[in-house]
Amino acid sequence: MSWLDGLSHRIRTLLAPNRHARELAEEVQFHLEMDAMHDGDTNQGRRRFGNRAYHREEVRESTWLRFVDRVTQDFSSAWRSLRRTPGIVAVVATTLALGIGINAMAFSLLDTLYLSPPGGVSHPENLRRYWVEHTRTHDGVPFHSRNLGYPIYRIVAELADRPENVTVYMASERQLGRGLDGPTVQMVWAQENYFDVLGIRLTMGRTFTAAENQLGSGAPVAIVSEAFRQRHLADRPAPLGTTIDLEQEQYTIIGVMAPDFTGLDLQPAEVWIPIGNLPVQRGSDPWWLTRYAGYFQVVERISTPGTPAAAVEARATDALRRYNRETRGATADTLSRIQLGPIQAAQTPGKLDTSVLISTRLTGVAALILLIALANVVNLLLGRAVARRRELSTRLALGLSRPRLVWILTLEAVMIASIGGAAATLAGWAGGTMLRTLLLPEIHWARSAFDWRVGVVTLGLTLGAGLVAGLIPALQASRPGPTSAMERLSTGDRHRSRLQNGLVIAQVALATVLLTGAALTLRSLHNVTSLDLGYDVEALVFGSVSFIKGQAPPNPVVDTRLESAVTRLTNRPGILGVARSSMAPMSGIGILSLFTGADSMGSFPVSPVHLRVSPSFFDVTGLAIQQGRGFIDDAGAETTGEVVVNAAMARMIWPNANPLGQCIQFVSRDRPCYPVVGVVESGRMTYVIEGEDKPQYYLSIRDPLAEGPARTIVVRTYPDKIAAAEAELRTALSAELPGGVPEVSSMTEDLGPQYRPWRLGAALLSGVGLLAVIVVLLGIYSTVSYGVARRTREFGIRMALGAQRQAVTRQVVTSGLRVVMVGLIIGTAITLAAGRLIRAILYGVEPDDPTTLVVVSAGLLIVAGLAALKPARTASRIEPAITLRTD
Predict the structure, then answer these.
(1) CB within 8 Å of 89: residues ≥ 6 apart
(2) Which class for 211: exposed (0-12), middle (13-18), buried (19 or more C-beta within 10 A)?
(3) Where are the alpha helices (DSSP H) in 160-263?
(4) What are the CA-CA distances from residue 124 to residues 169, 383, 738 (Å)?
(5) Between the ranges 438-452, 789-803, 811-825, where is the mean pLDDT highest?
């Protein structure tokens, strides 16, 4: 029989063992009958054939069934062994479940942000996204943006080898229906070649034509996603040709997108409309054709894979800078440059957004947690092996081979890890969704947080953790010694003790890194939330009214009604002051050309911005007047023709002169002079964290330069009366302007998204740091307990020779703390070396802050002392007589 026939036979017997058993029984019976016929006596034939069981086993050895028998026996033996120690099994499985589950959640987030390309796109590896690096920023730090102006798209397309392979789109949102209470729909304004460049397929209908995308007068057609069709058009079995309303505009559906494509951005798109439908003023060219408006995103499909990006970036950068100089003159950003990147929206070539940055750092934190968990599990399994010393020694003495013993012990660990992996799968499925919601709550994810890729990673981590956690104790337990098998485990005590100490050192070192990171992020959160923004953030509530397009009352009516709302709110219980402004502080900016003597707005290093306010605005918001005065409210006749500047603007324009009385002209030099009547403290312009105070000035809401009424009402209240003040403001706006929809919020709520990354980073790192401390505590406790158990005879002899209980306790605790000190030193060194990785998510504190390092080290030493105290007391209570008699 050839080797191929033998292999085929083994596979058949493995797949159909019952059939093989029947055939073997029939073969044995055949030989029995033949021998009986030959000898003429059935009993003689059976004696001649021999032991039937022996022959069956001999035949079975030539197949793979014997291996299956051994594996089945080993599984059964391992399961019986695990059932005898349910407590340790539960602790080990829980520890691994935490470590693997956190890694599954972190990988799910990392996979969504960086690894998985957008679904439904043909050959995404050949697509590249254009980015612009800006140098003139609010904090002086360059940043990258994938939002470009439409003129830049034209420049890029002209420079491309195949312009038809370059497309542009703009993400936006609209409300579905003609009212203001409809659901928000995520939209994409797309070029007609958008679908061809991306290689997208539709389940029904067609894409846009060039005629439908004529700039400034595009056809009102739309393509909807499959999710949009199921959610909003379920009652229309044939959606093609039907219409949908998006904020007073009606669009005809011409196609339905394939369900696997939801856009190129993290936020899933639901409706695609020709970019030519972007609103323009009647009789004029689209505003975005000639002005730089950074709302568009540019994507190119590489016609020749492997084309170097450097040459393309250099040509596009030269064209961009030339365009900037031609259109912006003295204010042009001549250092900006074009860069290319992958199609994944989160893969910026520059500084990451804080939320995305925390998401990436979370992967490293999860890996540290898994390492700590593995070290603790190995420690626990080493202790379990010590408890089974007699059993394992007996097996070795009876002839069990060392590889077989290693296999059995490793199998037990893998089975425990499988229990933890099952729990980790549930944690990854539920926790992945929760983590994405916490880190990026503004995104409505289209894809599940737990898919086959995350499942494969979870399975790999489970098997890897089980093998690592099982092999190390198994190799230690089966270490051969120079004497009999009964003595082998005892001779490995020194090796096991060193290994356990090494594992504790690793746990303490990694915990030091995590706890230091948690402490630094907590201090950063405190520093950020303690910043003086200039405004009394916790006491302010803002309100405005939105109207359906074309149904807003005339501006004079709105202005009068808002004044009536202010009067209605004044002196209401819990309301300390009311003011009006053109917009809520830190929610936007207004720009006017201005001139101050020889300087114009274009010559200033930073362009000043303005806010139109009522006279009570400064008192209500908490902005302190440092020089001069604010606007005067004399019997309702508010002053005009005057300007109040903030301290930053005064320093920038008049560094060596008194700003009061200085002249500013707006719009043009032939306009009247606006004298500076006051200087107020500099409040934040847009961001909680700004590199320096930004120049800002204030005009009266009655000033002739004003365009429309100041539509925002600012209310000052007590911090614990915010909800009541919001209700009062909403009631007043509804009563005065019943045709609109009140929009009311507190300043704390408005600034929440800016604080959220800091709060979230501190919460996540603090949580995993606490988990690390618990795991380290268990590791120290198990190691010290094992050491006490191993040295029971020694302690008994010492006590018999007169050693004091306090001395024994002190010795055990000191021995444990020495190991912890080594871990602290190593962990501190790692923290100092890796500080640059978390520097970007810190504020007001350095990664090598000595106070933080000392506090973390002291805290871990205290925890280690507490963990070692109970085993130390156990050692001090050993009765010498009983110990020696037992020995």
Answers:
(1) 82, 416, 419
(2) exposed
(3) 194-198, 226-232
(4) 17, 51, 51
(5) 811-825
For the ranges 304-313, 612-621, 713-722, the lowest mean pLDDT is seen at 304-313
Q: Which residues contact 636 (CB under 8 A, 6 or more apart)?
A: none
Of the candidates 259, 227, 221, the residue with the CA atom closest to the CA atom of residue 241: 221
H runs (alpha helix) in 388-492: 389-397, 402-439, 452-477, 488-491
831 contacts 519 by C-beta, under 8 angstroms = no
DSSP code string of 247-277: TTEEEEEEEEE-TT---SSSSPP-EEEEGGG
Q: Is 661:576 a contact under the CB 8 Å cutoff?
A: no
Q: What pLDDT does residue 543 have?
A: 94
Contacts with 807 (C-beta within 8 Å, 6 or more apart), sequence order: none
How far apart CA 220 and CA 206 sit, in angstroms, is: 14
Residue 352 CB contacts under 8 Å (≥ 6 apart), including other chains: 346, 360, 840
DSSP state letter for 345: T
Using DSSP bridges, classify how beta strands 166-175 and 594-596 pair: parallel, antiparallel or unpaired.
Answer: unpaired
Q: Are 332 and 325 in contact (CB under 8 A)?
A: yes
* Token reading at 427: 């944690």
What is residue 578's predicted lDDT score, i.e. its pLDDT?
Answer: 95
Looking only at the bridges linking them, the beta strands covering 696-700 and 609-613 are: parallel
- Is the pLDDT at 124 greater than 80? The verdict is yes
- Do the strands 221-224 and 337-341 form a parallel or antiparallel pair, or are they unpaired? unpaired
Tell me the β-bridge partners of 172: 187
Rounded to the nearest 10 degrees, the angle between the axes of helix 402-439 and helix 354-387 is: 150
Q: Which amino acid is at 509?
A: A
* 3-class DSSP assignment, residue 634: strand
pLDDT of amino acid 708: 74
User: At 494, is the secondary structure helix, strand, or coil?
Assistant: helix
Of 24-33, 122-131, 444-453, least confident by mean pLDDT is 24-33
Give residue 382's Cα distance to chain centre.
Answer: 36
The CA-based angle 535-541-546, given to 5 degrees, is 125
Query: Considering only CA atoms, which of 690, 720, 705 is closest in space to residue 541?
Result: 720
Judge contact between 132 and 338, C-beta under 8 A: yes
Q: Which residue has the higher pLDDT, 569 or 588?
A: 569
pLDDT above 50: residue 88? yes
Minimal CA–CA distance to 716: which of 581, 525, 530? 581
Q: What is the DSSP letter of 177?
A: B
Residues 6+ apart with CB under 8 A from 300: 127, 128, 130, 156, 160, 165, 166, 167, 197
- Report which of 536, 537, 555 is spatially closest to residue 545, judged by C-alpha positions: 555
What does the alpha-carbon distance between residue 697 and residue 678 come to, in Å, rounded to a whole number?
10
Helix (H, G, I), strand (E, B) or coil at 789: helix
What is the widest separation between alpha-carbon atoms in the chain?
A: 136
Contact predicate 585/683, CB 8 Å:
yes
Mean pLDDT of the chain: 80
Q: Are 61 and 53 in contact (CB under 8 A)?
A: no
Contacts of 531 (CB under 8 A, 6+ apart): 688, 689
The tokens for 746 are 């507190």
List of residues 6+ apart from 463 with CB closer than 8 A: 414, 417
* End-to-end CA gap in the chain: 62
pLDDT recorded at residue 723: 93
Closest CA to 508 of 865, 12, 218, 160: 865
Q: Is 570 in a helix, a strand, or coil?
A: coil
Model confidence band, residue 189 (pLDDT cutoffs 50, 70, 90): very high
Task: Give the contacts of 593 (CB within 8 A, at least 6 positions apart).
Answer: 600, 601, 666, 667, 668
Q: Who's near 91: CB < 8 A, 6+ residues apart? A: 380, 778
Which of 337, 299, 307 minimizes the C-alpha distance to 128?
Answer: 299
